[in-house]
């Protein structure tokens, strides 16, 4: 099978959850024998030497705004079609890729299905104009939670008969290992069960809910527990205040090694 997948980014050292999701998905598809033709802006970093990947650099360098992609990517998709052909056209982002993918298929009469990935809806007055139209025109929509599937019906009024929930998996590299003594000592984690959260401290991630839930876990757990959050964002200070209200001993201290977009680390216990 051969797919064409235009992308905003698949960097190996990325702090974006969506970018990590796509990189791992494309790598695993290639490992299964799928031939992946990836459109990527010139200068965007990506993992070299992945068997099954063919990366096609496109103009302009570094990246595109979502409202520019419909004018640039359809021609690039057509070039991949002319040179290699493909069986499926993927849109990893509803707004950034969806319009361009659907426009390319219609303009050049490409006889391929369009599969769109949907993760969540950010509040926007453009959702009914862009997201809804793209999702309704896609042959299949893949999402990773029942919540996201219900959200499409509740907020956009979209029928979900073509929306498939495929839960996020855990690869073999995520296996139990010995704890790093240096990190255990730095964050006072010795003898504790640890809950680790990786993600930006933003409204959509709802860090306050996790802090509240962890407070319940701490009260109910028979053994000492700790929460470690690796992330940064505008909700860091408010989350620190919330953690202190719940009586956590330490909260949101910088110092963990992390990707550039996730420099802060917290440990609450």
Question: Could you characterize what this model shows?
Answer:
With 269 residues, the chain is an alpha/beta fold. It folds into two domains: 2-165, Rossmann fold; 181-268, Glycogen Phosphorylase B (Rossmann fold, 3-Layer(aba) Sandwich). It is built from eight helices and eleven strands. It has helices spanning 17-31, 69-83, 98-108, 131-137, 146-156, 181-187, 207-220, 236-245; strands at residues 2-7, 35-41, 53-58, 88-91, 114-118, 140-143, 163-165, 193-198, 225-230, 253-254, 264-268. The strands form two sheets. A seven-stranded parallel sheet has the order 3-2-1-4-5-6-7, sandwiched between helices. It has a four-stranded mixed sheet with strand order 8-9-11-10, with helices on one face. α1 links the parallel β1 and β2. The longest helix has 15 residues, at 17-31. The radius of gyration is 21 Å and the shape is globular. The termini are far apart. Mean pLDDT is 87; it is low at 254-269.
The low-confidence runs, each spanning 5 or more residues with pLDDT under 50, are 254-269
Strand order of the largest sheet: 3-2-1-4-5-6-7
Strand content: 15-25%
CATH architecture of the largest domain: 3-Layer(aba) Sandwich
Give a short summary of the structure.
This protein has eight helices and eleven strands. With 269 residues, the chain is of the alpha/beta class. It folds into two domains: 164 residues, Glycogen Phosphorylase B (Rossmann fold), CATH 3.40.50.2000; 88 residues, Glycogen Phosphorylase B (Rossmann fold, 3-Layer(aba) Sandwich), CATH 3.40.50.
